[in-house]
Design goal:
By secondary structure, the chain is mainly alpha-helical. 53% of the residues lie in helices and 3% in strands. It contains 31 helices and 6 strands. Strands 1-2 form a two-stranded antiparallel sheet. A two-stranded antiparallel ribbon has the order 3-4. Helix 16 packs across helix 20.
């Protein structure tokens, strides 16, 4: 028995049988990976019938868990924390969330007596203030026939009501990642408010677009968004806001990020770190310039006394700030002084004084990202921007291509762990790829044969190589073409990995339409599309292959969408597609309309306009899947 298990039994006198039960259920969720995501903890506790106060679990995880996953030993510690609170469990469940300042408790939709969801009022207020600031110049949101969306009042449920129809949400996605949503495709109220169906269509655009920019949308449906399920609305809202805040953490935009390298570290390894980790590096770099020995490991406990922010502001904006807040002994008053400086710098977003003092990690992360975006204060910032390739004496770093970004977003949409930030570096140990393989065919991976990271340094090459070789073997088992790819290519981050990823993405997409044991192939997708176009008297839009040049103007794509959902395309907005600009405009509209009818697509408008046959196949295959589902729907009701 492991030391951790003995300690756990000693704490709660847990029987071996109970411990084995916990481990068995844990392994079912982990599916052989040895780790579960943070989101899986509460459902697992519920399935084990471990009574728990949700806020105790969340607080313990926020304080003790780094990253998005935890192993079995850490899960035992969660149970210990829950059990140790059990004498007051009933009292705590009756009112902990309502009694805590800033926490709003809402009943579960299915089991209101047993399930409690909650959100932090300060986060709601911070998000709506950000929306008010970012979208204050949008003419539709500030002036329209049905009353203005902006500004949103912090009182009551105004934010949640404003998000229900998907219009404001879509505009925020475009603010975070410009050009993602073609707003012409949205349903807008005309003579009466949008009905439920029209709002659902807009929310399909929201959720499918969020996935396409790298957000993780797990078990969230358009119906949840339209019905105003508050904690789910805020979950998506935070991911969209985060995508925009973190988009500037790039060597292309900030050449000086190379100053954050540790000794012997490569640029690829640095950029493979999460944006939050890079922000922590940035803060520590700035602190090293003005205060020797001061550093942080998180945006929670380590910033609560306000000292770090005082030094940080002095480092990045020395002309406008000073160390005067350090003379204030009251932490709340010191935090207010810090935010007065931030206000003068026009970066007072997301945090209030109590958010600093209480160490709200989410809001403080957003605040620091704001500081970085406006005042990076990195050496070499005055140098010319790099475009695609960056080369110096330390390393070579190549900025992510469109194709790589699409593959990365697809992998992350599968809800694997860990989240993939930089494709080649994060796939080197083979672990994420093995999880993806298991999504291609259920129970394909024999997890007892998998080495679960992290690995000791001396074992890293060997264990990673074993995993990578296993990936190649499984690829061959699935019938993927692995002629030029071997395990060492994956471990070394060879560009050949892109070929493997393309085949995996294609296999996954086509498997959605699998009939029994028969896989749909490219020709079946082509035939289905042409048959559908002919059915609706749109023969002129038929095409000979996914390499057909006529697909570049997106008119065939738009016609097919109109065949699947008649009357959905506004043909007065479709251009002739004669110029490259017209092609891009049609492609943007076509992709948004595909998402509107329920297709999750990862292609970019440039992929369509340039005739990328691989991405075109995947887009049309997704539409075929949606079309089949729509046709089958009446039979299943």
């Amino acid at each position: 028995m492991e030391t951790g298990e003995m300690e756990y039994q000693r704490d709660r006198k847990t029987s071996v049988a109970t411990l084995d039960k916990y481990r068995t259920e844990f392994n079912k969720v982990a599916r052989g990976t040895g780790r579960i995501s943070i989101e899986d903890v509460v459902p697992l506790l519920r399935s084990l019938q471990v009574k728990h106060a949700g806020y105790i679990v969340r607080n313990w995880i926020n304080t003790n868990v780094k990253g998005d996953t935890l192993n079995f030993y850490t899960f035992q510690k969660v149970i210990t924390a829950v059990n140790n609170s059990r004498p007051t469990w009933k009292d705590e469940m009756e009112g902990p969330l309502a009694d805590r300042d800033g926490i709003v408790r809402i009943p579960g939709a299915i089991e209101p007596e047993d399930t409690q969801h909650a959100y932090a009022e300060e986060e709601k207020v911070a998000f709506l203030e950000w929306i008010n600031s970012r979208l204050r110049h949008d003419r539709y949101l500030t002036k329209n026939a049905w009353g203005k969306y902006i500004p949103i009042s912090p009182k009551g449920d105004d934010l949640f009501d404003a998000l229900k129809d998907g219009i404001l949400f879509s505009k925020l996605i475009n603010d975070s990642v410009p050009g993602t949503v073609d707003e012409r495709a949205l349903n807008y109220p005309k003579t009466r408010p949008l009905n439920h169906f029209k709002m659902l269509e807009n929310q399909f655009v929201v959720l499918n677009s969020a996935v396409a920019i790298g957000c993780r949308i797990v078990s969230i449906r358009p119906e949840d968004m339209v019905c105003g399920v508050k904690h789910l609305q805020l979950a998506v809202l935070w991911q969209v806001i985060r995508a925009g805040l973190m988009s500037n953490i790039s060597l292309t935009k900030h050449h000086g990020l190379k100053k954050l390298l540790n000794e012997g570290e490569s640029l690829a390894k640095l950029m493979a770190r999460s944006p939050e980790e890079i922000l922590i590096r940035w803060v520590n770099y700035q602190l090293s310039r003005v205060c020797e020995g001061k550093y942080i490991k998180n945006f929670g406990r380590d910033i609560m006394d306000g000292e770090v922010y005082t030094y940080l502001l002095t480092a990045i904006a020395p002309q406008e700030t000073d160390l005067l807040p350090l003379r204030e002994t009251d932490k709340l008053a010191r935090a207010e002084m810090i935010l007065e400086y931030a206000d003068n710098l026009e970066v007072r977003n997301f945090v209030a004084p109590h958010d600093i003092v209480n160490g709200n990690m989410k809001l403080n992360t957003a605040f620091v990202a704001q500081l970085f975006n406006k005042y990076p204060a990195l050496d070499d910032e005055d140098q010319p921007e790099i475009n695609d390739d960056f080369d110096d004496s330390i390393d070579v770093y190549v900025e992510e291509t469109r194709e790589e970004k699409s593959f990365r977003h697809w992998i992350n949409s599968l809800n694997l762990s860990p989240y993939v930030t930089y494709l080649y570096e994060d796939l080197r140990d083979g672990y994420v790829l093995l999880q993806a393989m298991d999504k291609l065919r259920k129970n394909l991976v024999e997890w007892e044969n998998v080495n679960v990271p992290p690995f000791e340094l001396r074992q890293h090459v060997f264990k990673s190589s074993e995993n990578c070789n296993y990936v190649v073997d499984l690829g061959r088992e699935l019938g993927l073409k692995m002629i030029a790819v071997c395990g060492s290519d994956i471990y070394e981050g060879n560009k050949l990995v892109l070929g493997l990823l393309w085949q995996m993405m294609r296999y996954y997409t086509l498997s959605l339409m699998k009939c029994g044991n028969d896989m749909v192939n490219d020709k079946a997708v082509l035939d289905w599309c042409n048959c559908k176009l002919k059915e609706k008297k749109k023969e002129k839009s038929c095409f000979t292959s996914f390499k057909d040049p006529k697909l570049r103007d997106s008119r065939s794509l738009l016609d097919l969408i109109d065949c699947i959902q008649p009357g959905s395309i506004g043909y007065d907005m479709v251009t002739t597609g004669n110029t490259e600009e017209d092609k891009l405009e049609n492609a943007r509209y076509g992709l948004t309309m595909a998402r509107k009818i329920g297709a999750t697509v990862f292609a970019l408008p440039e992929d369509i306009a340039e005739g990328n046959h691989k991405m075109l196949l995947l887009v049309f295959a997704r539409l075929m899947n949606v079309g089949n589902e729509i046709e089958a729907a009446p039979e299943s009701t």
